[in-house]
């Protein structure tokens, strides 16, 4: 039987420009991470690979500041970790309270509803955060078994204060799930001290790894809820019972579950190692310093930050308002064309309202801040001069 | 607040040996694929990346021999593609007939049951395949909406003949799902001509890519069934409605759904390009020739192949019986220690019964066959001499 012919598009070399990714993620890989991606494959059950998995686990425990034994990386990108939290923790009929102040609350609500949960929402506009009092009021009203909060809301650029939220949840007998995809490593977070029960993140932000392996951790209380499930989770791929075994978290001999994304775990191991070498506190400080430099520079240019209160600003992703009369997209295209720098638009509520500037991991340097400010100013001036000349 | 200290295990370089992976997967990456893994990241919505996604799609259409527009790569390893097939196609109460002749039928049954399907099973021992008559008899008995078959059953080493199965399924108004994780590129398969409705595979076998992005394709009939769903799939991450849009399969402007595993898609693009350059038919022939060379060599050594009939042998993964009195694991360990070659054990029914030898993609060369045969013979001789000297 004859075959159809090979597509011509594949018969030429793959070429594309090197860009500086200063959007909300991915950030650029560090050279060490890139080198790790190209290392020869090992089998997914080989002892050398199991050791790398163990080191990844220790690294995640460190960046999450947790001693949870059920700590591992999901074999997918950040949304897969969100889904793993959802589908393992929630059972049909469970009431979950989602604190929704941007795209990630919306996404978690969608996933929870698909899993049959009874989703209750407490909503605030993008750019604002929740107080423990607001959460306690909503918890009292809805009586949820699980509460969801976004630590780093990259659509609205907020850093949700979490200290005290665990106490509220424990007082009302519910579990606390936190999304830290955009914030981990870029702002203080103490999973155990703050009483967070489920925490997850992605690889392509502060860790400066390619997306595809996503850290997650569950407290003993979350494990108890999962152990008491009436039915298995719908997902086999994300079933925490199987994954706990594959990642050596249950004290049993490891059984084959699925083939892990081997190269992504090499990269994640290296990204975690780079963070461990710098030290978590120094890494938090570096991100804070770069963000402050950026914020000052933007205000010097006469621009307005989307988040009013400095203490609620996410250091890793900064939304800044697009001035009246300027087309955000034209400026972004100018910056890409002339500097090969990514400058993102808004997302969800903030679409067309803001640019979002990411300074994460390998990319969080004063030099990149200065380059971005120069490029943005030029882009805005270019658009303004076009507007004027067309009047 | 003080942080816990960084784990010492991360503060030393990552080192491990280069191995020749002649198990059932992963296979070794080709140098071009490894180089692609280290390329600088692009944004997951950048035009250059969208072009790579388009090329990946064309490459998958080619290796699947399909014109289906709903053709893309799932952002996870092979099991994620299996789960995507399951959770999008099946609704609670749907009857599915699973042809189970090894581990993959078992896995698909598990996933289908989690999705609420009414799972009926037609079972044969590992090492045997199904005839169209056997499938038609079971379809007549159970009246399923969906039939599942494994093309390359890597646990039993069988290549399931598929020509004629699509006709049976269409005659009875059901859809045909085929798992080709272990076979694609290594044995003839014509998705459209054979009337397959859903086909999926992995990246780490004949494509010689790192695991983490997994090709899948749906026929128009499968799309119709999905369009008529009463409820959304439980998985948001794997929701084919969203993914069809993100992969440009629905004719609408692409919306952000999730961050794709960017480097894995670079690698997949390169793996598909290497296969396109060789040509699908030549690639099938190379795998067939290497398998025949291996089979002859094993029989020359007095060993017995697990699958009796040559036409039912999977060219990519060969199970061979462990001779009486020999410990399979000891031989595998010998071969790893002295040659750094992976020689796998059995899986499921074939555990402890066989070694499994994989010759896939970059690794499918006559030189590798000869090396494996020499190493295996030495390993067996070594174990025999130990047995004798202990008598």
Summarize the structure in words.
Chains A, B: Keywords: Aminotransferase, Pyridoxal phosphate, Transferase. The mean pLDDT of chain A is 97. Chain A has two domains: 20-25 and 280-389, Alpha-Beta Complex (Aspartate Aminotransferase, domain 1), CATH 3.90.1150.10; 31-276, Type I PLP-dependent aspartate aminotransferase-like (Major domain) (Aspartate Aminotransferase, domain 2). In chain A, 61% of the residues are buried. Chain A is built from twelve helices and 14 strands. Chain A is α/β, with parallel strands linked by helices and 391 residues long. A seven-stranded mixed sheet of chain A has the order 2-10-9-8-5-3-4, with helices on both faces. In chain A, a hairpin with an 8-residue loop joins strand 13 (344-345) and strand 14. Chain A has helices at residues 31-37, 47-64, 78-89, 103-114, 132-142, 165-171, 220-227, 240-246, 262-278, 280-300, 328-339, 366-389; strands spanning 20-21, 70-74, 95-100, 118-123, 146-150, 152-153, 158-159, 175-179, 198-200, 214-218, 317-321, 341-342, 344-345, 354-358. Chains A and B meet through helix 1, helix 2, helix 3, helix 4 and helix 9 of A and helix 1, helix 2, helix 3, helix 4 and helix 9 of B.
């Amino acid at each position: 039987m004859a075959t159809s012919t090979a597509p011509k598009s594949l018969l030429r070399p793959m070429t594309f420009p090197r860009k500086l990714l200063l959007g909300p993620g991915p950030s650029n890989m560090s050279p060490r991470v890139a080198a790790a991606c190209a290392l020869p494959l090992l089998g997914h059950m080989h002892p050398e690979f199991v050791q790398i998995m163990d080191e990844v686990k220790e690294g995640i425990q460190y960046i999450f500041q947790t001693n949870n034994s059920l700590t591992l990386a999901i074999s997918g990108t950040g949304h897969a970790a969100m889904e793993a939290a959802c589908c393992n923790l929630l059972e049909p009929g469970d009431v979950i309270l989602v604190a929704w102040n941007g795209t990630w609350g919306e996404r978690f609500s969608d996933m929870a509803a698909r899993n049959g949960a009874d989703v209750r929402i407490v909503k605030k506009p993008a750019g604002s955060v929740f107080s423990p009092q607001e959460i306690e009021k909503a918890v009292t009203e809805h009586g949820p078994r699980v509460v969801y909060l976004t630590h780093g809301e990259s659509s609205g650029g907020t850093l949700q204060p979490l200290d005290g939220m665990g106490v509220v949840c424990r007082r009302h007998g519910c579990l606390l799930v936190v999304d830290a995809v955009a914030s981990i490593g870029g702002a203080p977070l103490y999973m155990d001290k703050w009483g967070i029960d489920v925490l997850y993140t992605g690889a392509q932000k502060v860790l400066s790894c390619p997306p595809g392996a996503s850290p997650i951790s569950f407290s003993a209380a979350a494990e108890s809820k999962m152990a008491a499930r009436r039915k298995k989770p719908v997902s086999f791929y994300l079933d925490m019972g199987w994954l706990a075994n594959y990642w050596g978290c249950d004290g049993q001999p490891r059984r084959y579950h699925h083939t892990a994304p081997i190269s992504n775990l090499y990269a994640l191991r290296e990204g975690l190692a780079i963070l461990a070498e710098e030290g978590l506190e120094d890494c938090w400080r570096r991100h804070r310093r770069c963000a402050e430099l950026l914020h000052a520079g933007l205000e010097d240019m006469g621009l307005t930050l989307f988040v009013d209160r400095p203490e609620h600003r996410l250091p890793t992703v900064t939304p800044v308002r697009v001035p009246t009369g300027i087309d955000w997209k034209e400026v972004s295209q100018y910056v890409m064309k002339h500097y090969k720098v990514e400058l993102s638009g808004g997302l969800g509520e903030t679409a067309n309202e803001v640019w979002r500037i990411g300074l994460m991991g390998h990319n969080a340097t004063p030099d990149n801040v200065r380059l971005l400010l120069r490029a943005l100013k030029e882009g805005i001036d270019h658009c303004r001069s076009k507007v004027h000349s067309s009047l």
